[in-house]
Write a structure and sequence with these properties.
Elements (H helix, E strand, L loop, with lengths): L14 H9 L6 H6 L5 H12 L4 E2 L15 H10 L8 H15 L2 E10 L10 E13 L2 E5 L12 E2 L6 E2 L5 E7 L11 E7 L7 E10 L2 H13 L4 H4 L2 E8 L2 E9 L2 E6 L2 E6 L3 H12 L5 H5 L11
Antiparallel strand pairs: 1-10, 2-3, 2-9, 3-4, 4-5, 6-7, 7-8, 8-9, 10-11, 11-12, 12-13
Amino acid sequence: MRHSDEAPLPPTYTDSQLSKYLHSFSFNYGELFRHGFAIDYNELKTIQQHHLSTYPFENLSLHYSTTHTISLDLDLLFEKFVEADRGRGGYCMENNAFLGSMLRSMGYDVTSVGARVCDGIHGGDGETFGSWSHMVNIITISNKRYMVDVAFGGNGATAPLPLEENTIHERIAPSEMRLIRSSIKQHTDPHQRLWLYQARETRDSEWQTQYCFTETEFLAEDYEMMNFWTSQSRTSIFTQAILMAKMVMEDGKVVGAVTMFNEKVKREVGGVVVERFCMSEEDRLGILKEWFGVRLTGEEERGIKGLVTELKG
């Protein structure tokens, strides 16, 4: 990694690392890399969508490993995502920290901020939010700001969302997404405002709030604290379940997603849904390879033994 002499700028990746990252996509970015980046919305959208379809949202390191821990060290993330070339990604703080640093290396103006996940995605009332446990990036292009997130699973944003209230965008047709600005139920001061990311299945469906986020910059030290609880607490969903999502691209457009929740796997593309239930660890490891392109080492495969997420069939 390289560090600017004008500290305290955040660290960025080297030209060699950036080139390897871009070449991991399904098209050749060599020409673009040689002639400079456009630093515009269309380029940012292209990078986000190829990232979503290349590097899955996943928490396998908490289940299929010997340490059951997650590091946010950027060089270790580069090794995991790119160098190892085994189809791996990471959960929110890994994926968004990795992408944010890559975008910063290209010349984008990146601010990393924290988010609170809405309890509605776990069966709650849809009005209550948890602690700071999610990360998103705010990208500024020509004085216009966009929210970019590549690590919120199957309901995540599939393109940069301008920080504008109630502007509706296509997510994965026919589903839609938007941002609104509001206080949340737990605020004692109702004049406080956060951005709420919402999604709905069709134009006629109800909007479902997924998370809220602030515009206040979070530091690496903040994420270290957040990562510790999220990856180690016995009450965190990430330690109690295996979660995965990877977008599917066809003809340069996101058209669907493949998701996993413990033993259940679903592929939904163009309205066609295929579901599978893994009956054993051997079955799930096969699905990880076949549906997600993830290849674990033997040592990683054995790491799940004795955990609540192990399939014993």
